[in-house]
Amino acid sequence: MAVAEHLNITRAAEQLQLTQQAVSSTIKSLERDLRVPLLSRKGRSIELTPAGKVLRDGGLPILDAAEALVRATRAAAAREGDHLIIAHTPAISSDEVFDISEPIRRAFPQASLTARQCFPDELVPAIRAGTATVGLRRGATTPRDVAAAVVAYTVLNIAVSATHPLAEKKMVTMHDLAGESLILWGPPGESFYADFLMAVCRRAGFEPKNVVNHIQGTAPTTAVIGNDHFAFVTAEPGRYHHGQCVVIPIQDPPMAPVQALWLRHTMPPLLHPLLEGDLHLGEGRKLRPDAPRQTVT
């Protein structure tokens, strides 16, 4: 896998603290056992053959699962209690994490749960490294190296500053938002959630003006303070941040997916209640009512 990562025998040998000859011999032995070439050599450079790419893509999750088994075995030997580390992106609020973890807490009342926020590009590396057991994000596509399932859908409201013209409304329609500026947490085309929110507006019949929030990692409701933009949020209707922000419900509201990610070829016991669909979420946070849960392993 080190050779597949670096596409360089020397750097792979340095990472593995082996000689180049030992690495080359191991590759040749593996090719002989599999009866297929794994590397294509062109001058001083090497490339993966189609067989090599298949072995890399299938092997990484197996190695990750093996390392997870080692960690679980050592934890059992040390008689450590059940512990689930939930990493979540800023688009998933801490309140949502608490609601979504309810079936786990109900099934394992003595288990220790830790929630920590991380940025989207940190989520899969954290899961692979074992610093997170499961990741929660807004998404529907499946990363290459992990398993995924949409576990819940959350009702969207809008947030505006207290001085925004919409702030006095008890409820808004999607038509009310046409012509308003939408604030996002990532550029469209680079963020699934940004693309999803843009698509929500397009399905309502308008192309929203948009800007990207330059403050990351704070509560989504803070994005509209001191400006004239609106944001889609999952916070309950009401006033926030000492009255500087107002969250307003949407008539016939759109719903945003919550996707769980975990290591392929593994199934920690604490994840079973989450993935079995036995969620009893609070008002405004619910499983998608009209389709079965989708799981990709």
TrEMBL record:
One Pfam family this chain carries? Answer: LysR_substrate
> Which spans of this chain does the record mark as coiled coil?
none
Q: Which GO terms describe its molecular function?
A: DNA binding; DNA-binding transcription factor activity
Q: Which UniProt keywords apply?
A: Activator, DNA-binding, Transcription, Transcription regulation
For this protein, the record's InterPro entries field holds: LysR_HTH_N, LysR_subst-bd, WH-like_DNA-bd_sf, WH_DNA-bd_sf
Is Transcription among the key words of this record?
Answer: yes
Any Gene Ontology CC annotation: protein-DNA complex
Using the record's annotation, list all stretches that form the HTH lysR-type domain.
1-49
Report the family membership: Belongs to the LysR transcriptional regulatory family.
Please state what the protein is called.
DNA-binding transcriptional LysR family regulator
